[in-house]
Write the structure tokens for this entry.
Amino acid sequence: MEFRTYGSPELPAVMLVHGATWSGLFVRQAEILRERYHIILPVLDGHGLTAAAPYVSTERCARQLLDYADRHHDGRLFALGGVSLGGQIAIEMLTRRSRLCRRAIIESASCTPHPWMRRTGRIVHRLMFRAQALNAGRSNRRKPPELRLPEREMELYARELSRLCRDGRSVDAIFDSHLAYGLSEEIRGCEAEILCWYASREPKAIRDSALLLREYAPRCTVQELTGYRHGELAAHRPDEWVRRAEAFWQA
């Protein structure tokens, strides 16, 4: 697994975990925050333009990220964040390490298993990834100007998504692991303050996951992002993401 860092290692360490298909999702946030925080952006297995290993599972990624925190930050971060698949991985990290960080932000993450979808949906999932890769540029142009990715980032995203689509092992592992994941009782011991966002225009299962996380984790607050779609705040509104995140971190 590759790790990209921004800002001085002497600053408070913040790890932000991207979702499926796009390792550069948090780059714009990292550029904004680098003067105040040491930002760590992992590139999950199976992602990036030169991935050396396929994606295996949510749990394996969580172990790898915890190992990095242990080796470089004595097992403690100031803050942790993740969106979609990355939010699920962040939840698993908090489950395994109750005092990993002071603050955690989870956006659009699923933590309830969907066995029926696993049985029937793998082929559909592959086709969706391929359609997304073929239509990435067109889809970006159709978005309102304030939500469009910059041209350079759009090019990198399309190239990375196309490469991932050719890696059937990673695509299937993302699908299987993501839909199999469920909360563990151990999350009840988490000492971090958690802010969990779900978008009003994404599947109801994500809202249900957010409410379940609040039920299990004693210091979790849930907020609805009214009018937003899945992962929109992190992926398409980096300035707003930073404003909301810093308000939470500094509270």
